[in-house]
Amino acid sequence: MPASIVVFLVAVPLSLGVAMASGAPLASGLIAAVVGGVVAGALGGSAVQVSGPAAGLSLVVADLVQTYGWRATCMITLLAGAVQLLLGVFRAARAALAVSPAVVHGMLAGVGVVIALSQLHVVLGGSPQRSALANIIELPGQLVDPHGHKIAVGMLTIGVLALWLRLPKQVKVVPAPLAALLVAAVTAWAFGWDVTRIDLSGAFTEWTFPVLPQGDWHMVVAAVLLVALLAGVESLLCSVAVDSMHTGPRADLDQELTGQGVANMVSGALGGLPLAGVIVRSTTNARAGARSRASTILHGVWVLVFAIGFGWSIQLIPVEALAALLVFIGVQMVNLGHIRKVHGHGEVPVYIVTMAAVILLGLAEGVLFGLALAALMALRRLTGVTVRTRQQPDGRYHATISGSLTFLGVPRLTQELRAIPAGAPVDLDLNIDFMDNAAFEAIHAWRLDHERLGGTVDIDELHDEWYAMAASGVRMYPAKTLSSGPDRSWLPWAHRRSRASQRVEPPHGTPGQADCRLTEGAREFHRRTAPLVRPIFTELARKQQPTHLFITCADSRIMPSLITASGPGDLFTVRNIGNLVPRRGTEPHDDSMGAAIEYATQVLGVHTITVCGHSGCGAMAGLLSGGVKAGSLPAMRRWLRHGNHSLARFIETAGDRLDADALDLLCKVNVQQQLDNLRTYRKVDDQVRAGRLKLVGLYFDIGSARVHMLPPVSSSLSVKA
C-alpha cells in the first residue's frame, strides 16, 4: 500500500508530461498509466516493474500524431500491442536483450535532449518547433524575447526539482515532480501570475474508437513494428535492471512481453499512449518496499480514482511548469553513469552516434545508425588481432598474439613478426580463439624463415591448439568442441615434451644445452600463469588462512591441489614418507609433525585434518616386508617404526592373508591408524570432542585416478579389501 501511493504520486505528473511532450491529449497519459498499472501489472512477468507512458517513445508518438492524427496513432498502438503479444507467445523476449545497451542508452539520451530543447521553448513562453535543429536555431530568439510570469513559473519548477535532490530523506518522501508542480501551481495562483492553464474539458467523456491510418501501408507497418520493438526492448531491459533491486521472484521475460502487448492493445483501444516499463517508476516502487505486483496494480487504481474524482485539480497546473518538468527529465536522461559504463567496454562511439542521429535525424534513424555501428564494432572485435613483442633481459624475444586470426589481420601480423631480428630466440604465445588458413600460413612461413636464418621459435598455445592441428593436418574445429584446454600445467614434463613433438616443431639446439626442467618451468610460470594469479597472491601475501591441514605421502605422483580441486591458500600441507603421524611421545622422537599439528590447530585454526594415503605406497611395502626392503636405508627403518601400529591393525584385519591386495589394504588401514594417532595429541582430541575439528581419511587410487573416503576411525577399526 505505501509503495503504491508513492508510485502513484510519481506517475501522475510524469504521465501528464510525457503526453504533453508527445503532442497527445493530456488525458491519454493518465489512461496509459491506469492501463499500465492494472493490466500490465496483473499480466506481466515482473513482480515490481511499473509500466506507463515512457519518455523514450514520445518522439515516435509525436511524429505519428503529426503524420496520421491522434485516433490513427491509437490504432497503431493497438496493433503494436498485438505484435508484442505474438512475440511473447512465441517466446522471443530473450532476443531483445541482444540489442547493445549503448544503443538503448544513446537513444534515450537523444530523446532527452530533443524533449529538453522542445519544452524549453514552452518554458520561455514560445512554441516548440518540429525538429531539434529548428529548436536550436529558434532558441536565441526566444531568449531575447522573455515572457515574464511564464519564465518565472518554469524557473521556479526547475529550482524546486534541483533543490529536492539535496534535501533529507524524510522530506523526499514526497516525490520531487509532485512537489515542484504543487509549488509552481500554488505560487502562480497566490500571486495571480499570467500563465497558461491545462485544459482537460471533456477529456474523459469524449471517446471515439481508433481508426486505421491512411497512407502508405509500408510506412504504417514500419510504424507499428517500431513502436512494438522500442516499447518491448525498453520494457525488457527495465525488467532485467529492476530484478537486481529486489529479492523476490525473477522476471519471466516472455510473460512480461505478453502482458505489455495486452496492455498496449487496451491502451490503444481506450485512447491512451503506448506504454512500456519505466525505470523511474519501477525504481521508486522497488525502493519504496514493493514485494509483489499488488503495488503496481494499486497504483493504477489510484491514478484512475484521481482522474475521475480529482481531475479538475490538474487544470490548476501551469503548462509552463509541466514543460519545465520535461526539461529537467530530458536533461536527466543524458545519464553520465551510462556513459561511464559504455566507456568501460569501448562503446562510447555507438552511444554518441546513436544520440546524435536521434537528435538530428529522428528516433528510427538514430536507432538504425546505432545498431549498424554496434554491429561493425562487434565484427571488428571478432576479427581483431593484437600482436605484442618485447625483448627480455636474457636476449630472448617474447611475442604474444591475441584475438581471432583471420586473413584481415595477416598484414599487421606479418609486419610485427618480421620486425624481430633474424637469429633471435623467440617464445611465441598464441592466445587465440580462431585461426583461418591464411593466418596459419603467415605464422608458419615466418617461423620456417626465422629458423632457417638461425633463430629458434617455441610456440605455446594458451587457448586451443589451432596451430598444432593445422601443422599436423588435423581438421580445425570451433574452440568449444576441442577437448584440450589452455592450461596444461598439471601434465608431467614428459607428457608435455611428447605433445611438443606432436606439434611438428623443428628441432633446435643441441642435446647438452637443455636447461633444468625446473628453470624452464619457472620461466613458463612467469610467462603464462603469474599474470593470471598475481591478484590472488597479492591478497594472500598479507596472511595465510587455510581451512585444512592436509597430511599426505611424499610420493611424487600425489598432487594435493589437483586431487582436491583446491587453490593457493586452501591447504596447509605436510608430506612425509608413508603419510605417517608419529604418536605423541613415541620413539624415535620427531617434532616436525607435532610442530605442524600445533601450528595448524592452534595458530591457523584449521577446521579439518585430512590424512591421504595412496595405492602402491613404497613405505607400506617396506613395512609389510618387515623392514627387509629398507635394509640399506637406516633412517628409513627408524622412520617406519612409526608405522608398527598400522601393521598391527592390518594383521588384526587381514589375518594371515597376503594376497595381491594386501599392500593396498595396508595403505588404507594405515590412513585410519594415522587418524587414530592424531587423537593422541591432547589439543586435537579436545577440539574433535568439542566439534570444532574434523578428522578425514582419503585414499587415492593412482591407477584409476579416483579418491575414496575412508570410514571414520570411531565407527570402524577395519577396512574392507
Automatic annotation (TrEMBL):
Catalytic reaction list: hydrogencarbonate + H(+) = CO2 + H2O
The SLC26A/SulP transporter domain, residue ranges: 2-352
Enzyme Commission code(s) on record: 4.2.1.1
Membrane topology annotation: Multi-pass membrane protein
Compartments it resides in: Membrane
Superkingdom: Bacteria
Transmembrane segments: 68-90, 102-124, 148-167, 174-192, 217-242, 297-315, 321-339, 351-379
Keywords: Lyase, Membrane, Transmembrane, Transmembrane helix, Zinc
SUPFAM superfamilies (alphabetical): beta-carbonic anhydrase, cab
Gene3D superfamilies linked: Carbonic anhydrase
Main localization of the protein described in the UniProt heading: membrane
Family: Belongs to the beta-class carbonic anhydrase family.
Protein purpose: Catalyzes the reversible hydration of carbon dioxide to form bicarbonate.
Name by which UniProt lists this protein: carbonic anhydrase
